[in-house]
Automatic annotation (TrEMBL):
Descriptive protein name: Prepilin-type N-terminal cleavage/methylation domain-containing protein
UniProt cross-references to Pfam families, sorted A to Z: N_methyl (PF07963)
SUPFAM superfamilies in alphabetical order: Pili subunits (SSF54523)
Record keywords, A-Z: Membrane, Transmembrane, Transmembrane helix
């Protein structure tokens, strides 16, 4: 009677084949980079909301919460505001109050934490993108719409390209 079962070589070959399948299939099943980008955008949104919560308090005390354009001094930096909240301007507002390396998406060097795009500086909109998705067309960004006389600032996440 011949014993039934696999030889050691057959078992090793099966394990190698399963390992190859796992390595090629795992990235498709678990997209950790996308989740990381979305979480980073959520974190940036939280930081921006927290900064704006503090700005509206400071600007209200100074009577600037109804001004269409003004600036407040935060720890020695002048921060541009619109109706008491940060304006949609990276150099004049967000670079002053967010502790991160932020650069222009089109002209900036590689290596920044975040990239911004503000194609029309007068429209009150600015986009922030993670380093690996620094073009707005890749659909992985946080859009900030500055406050108006009738509405507080708005934050919109676009993550279908993350």
């Amino acid at each position: 009677m011949k014993p039934k079962g696999f030889t050691l070589i057959e078992l090793v070959i099966i394990i190698v084949i399963l390992a190859i399948l796992a390595v090629t299939a795992m990235p498709r099943l678990v997209d950790l980079q996308s989740d990381a980008r979305i979480s980073a955008l959520n974190g940036l949104q939280g930081a921006m909301q927290g900064a704006n919560d503090q700005l509206i308090g400071i600007s209200s005390v100074q009577g600037l919460d109804t001004a269409a354009s003004a600036s407040v001094n935060i720890e020695g930096d002048n921060v541009d505001i619109a109706f008491g909240y940060a304006s949609a301007d990276n150099a004049g507002a967000w670079a002053q109050i967010i502790d991160a390396n932020i650069d222009d998406a089109t002209w900036g060097d590689d290596g920044a934490d975040w990239y911004f795009s503000n194609t029309n500086p007068n429209d009150g909109i600015i986009l922030y993108m993670p380093a690996s998705r620094r073009q707005a067309g890749l659909n992985c960004f946080l859009q900030y719409d500055e406050a108006t006389s009738t509405a507080p600032p708005n934050y919109t996440l676009t993550t279908n390209g993350c």
